[in-house]
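SEVERITY: medium
COMPONENT: batch folding queue
REPORTER: lab tech (J.R.)

DESCRIPTION
The queue accepted two submissions in a row. Attaching both inputs and their returned structure tokens so the on-call engineer can compare them side by side.

ATTACHMENT 1
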Amino acid sequence: MNQKLLGLYGLKFNPFSSELPTEALLQTSRIDSFCWRIENSLVREGGFALISGDPGTGKSVVLRLLADRLARQRDLTIGALTHPSSRLADFYREMGELFTVSLQPHNRWAGFKTLRERWAAHLQNTLLRPVLLIDEAQELQPSVLCELRLLAATQFDSRTLLSVVLA
């Protein structure tokens, strides 16, 4: 869309662009409430949250808005899983890259232990749980989702080390 046409309607950005900046996105009260709950509850207590809806209803946009808001929090580690359809070995490779941990995909136990130690140290130092954002979560392999659930909790599921938002 050219600048003349944008100016005619008083627009700064092309509203149909997929690269629309987050400040140009509409934040309804429901989106604001969801983001507030993630920032003030899930990040401090851990667990899983889900953004659901029909195709084209803005789930990925809400995830972008949430990522932008979380990025403003000091000392919060945020990772976004970019390849949700991967198998376990690739999942561990990506988790290692996201959370700057050197992992050997063929040694899942060491990767599991190292990631949990990293998250526990982060929690102890900042009192905030790292956040993992997953878009297109319906593509997750069941084995990866189970592994993620096991990774996120410790002490017989009484202590959560990670916050996960699925869209």
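ATTACHMENT 2
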Amino acid sequence: MAQTTPATLRPASIEWPTWLLILAIHGSWLALLVAYHALPAGLGQLGLVLVATWHLSLQHELLHGHPTRSPRLNQLFGLFPISVWYPFAIYRDSHLSHHRDAQLTRPGVDPEGNYVTAEAYRQAGPAWRLQQWVLRTAVGRLLLGPLLAVWAVWVQLPKALWRRDTTHAQAWLVHLLLLALLLWLVQTVAGIAPVHYLLGIAYPALGLAMLRSFYEHRPADLPAHRIVINEAAWPWRLLYLNNNYHAVHHAHPGLAWYRIPAAFRADRAGYLQRNGGFHLTGYAGLLWHHALTPVDSPIHPGLDP
């Protein structure tokens, strides 16, 4: 007898919440630019940081097949680089590779992993070793993490030009042209200097986005035990589009963001049992307890086959 798909996991015919989300993010970004100088000092900048962070969460949703069944159409909604740093196609390919759960956290294999091998650690100098420990703190993740993440992506551009590798040439060309348009718009409409948008808005937005992934994976023998459930408060859930329920997302990567909480509530005990009790109760606790204290060791312990 065929199993019936639970109602919480059934796809919606029309994803109205995601369509509204696309309008809300792009509309609020433009509204903040228009009202930038009329807002109290710092409020416009804070608003743009949050919208840029939200945009990164939207890009994650788009690459997982929302709001339409057309990857090309979904990609169009993620091309305009409000959050600046990642060409959409490059982020998409890297992130989908991350969803090979059997390889999660493995250094050099998981593209979003943040652990290092014991051998690499032994052979490295003291500055690099210190950097790895700093990145295991919340402050290090917020302040230094974006720099290293941006470097890892953007250094590929001159390398590709040197090798005459055109694999991502179109993605880079589209991204750079749209980024130039964005920086012209923010200066023309709001008087925000391009450098200020890059370093004062897009950079902290990426840091805030990276707080979500600060401790969402850990080494463990069973792949399911490597993925966290973080029962964060609703502002965090909205900002991260419920990706804090990360074990649910990995179990059902095609499940739309607004359906994830119901899927979790319907089988809370089951998810926590299957992920080995890897459970957090919010991001404030991570910031408080691990601001300057590493959450764990940067050295990957190695896993059983």
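NOTES FROM REPORTER
The longest strand covers residues 229-230.
No errors were logged for either attachment.
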